[in-house]
UniProtKB/TrEMBL annotation:
Superkingdom of source: Eukaryota
Name of protein: Reverse transcriptase domain-containing protein
Length: 264
């Protein structure tokens, strides 16, 4: 097998090739994170075997110590001892690694996939802290800046809210949680506008006033829009996801029929 980082002139016959014409190039390449998803351990072992062969073909090495395993088959209690999971790989001419041991994350831990944080147990604490941290950092950065109240509102609506919306794609926070997270935003707007701290926050949401986005209402609207887009999608996998979300809503609220048949 040829080293992919050795360049040879491909136009010359093998018997005419001069070894001195080979050009050796030293390269250090970092690959982005890869995610393997499977419904069984055997499926993961098969995919891990393929990845090891891929690494051999492309002269790449992976740090197995940094592998992370997320599984919903782990015990729900935090006191349970989490043991490493052994994956047995298929040996071949390209793979000489027989097994890989990975310590799974606790079911209460949050993990990131495509920039969005998930939690197998369904806990919202991590995302809640993230949202509060983003809002607090935003308020602390702009508090000393020489900006008018409308400029702060514009930055919040156009910069921070889309970021928070992306982080909360799979997590719905209550109105109380959203209010607590944006507490310092409200204080900042009042400070910049020279308003009293006792002024009710809903006044800022009026379009006739400052037009500050209500994070809770905006989040609900985003989730409803996503459901609407999924319901009208022609992609089969999106249609199946929509049916799954309907079943999840039906299960969570103990509705005996489809949520589409429930009258307001």
């Amino acid at each position: 097998m040829l080293d992919p980082y050795i360049l040879r002139p491909p136009t010359l016959p093998p018997n005419m090739m001069d070894p001195t014409l080979n050009i050796a190039i030293n390269n250090l390449v970092f690959m982005d994170d890869s995610t393997l998803i499977s419904s069984s351990k055997a499926g993961l072992e098969h995919m891990l075997s393929i990845t090891e062969e891929f690494y051999a073909l492309n002269n790449t090495s992976a740090n197995h110590q940094k592998y992370v395993l997320i599984s919903n088959s782990l015990p729900l209690t935090t006191t349970s001892t989490i043991l490493p999971v052994e994956f047995h790989l298929s040996l071949s001419s390209l793979n000489d690694i027989s097994s890989i041991s990975v310590i799974p994350l606790s079911i209460t831990s949050s993990f990131r996939f495509l920039g969005v944080w998930f939690n197998i147990k369904g806990s919202r604490d991590f995302v809640k802290k993230q949202i509060a941290g983003e809002c607090n950092s935003f308020a602390a950065t702009l508090r000393l800046a020489k900006l008018f109240a409308k400029q702060v509102v514009y930055l919040y609506n156009s910069v921070l809210v889309p970021k928070l919306e992306y982080r909360m794609q799979v997590t719905h926070l209550s109105a109380a949680d959203c209010y607590a997270a944006t507490h310092f935003i409200h204080s900042l707007v009042k400070h910049k506008a020279n308003f009293s701290r006792s002024l009710p926050n809903p006044i800022f949401y009026l379009s006739q006033a400052l037009g500050l986005i209500n994070l809770s209402s905006h989040l609900i609207q985003c989730h409803v829009n996503n459901l609407f887009l999924m319901a009208n999608s022609s992609v089969p996998i999106i249609q199946r996801l929509f049916i799954y979300r309907l079943m999840l809503i039906q299960f969570r609220f103990l509705i005996p029929v489809s949520p589409l048949m429930v009258d307001d």
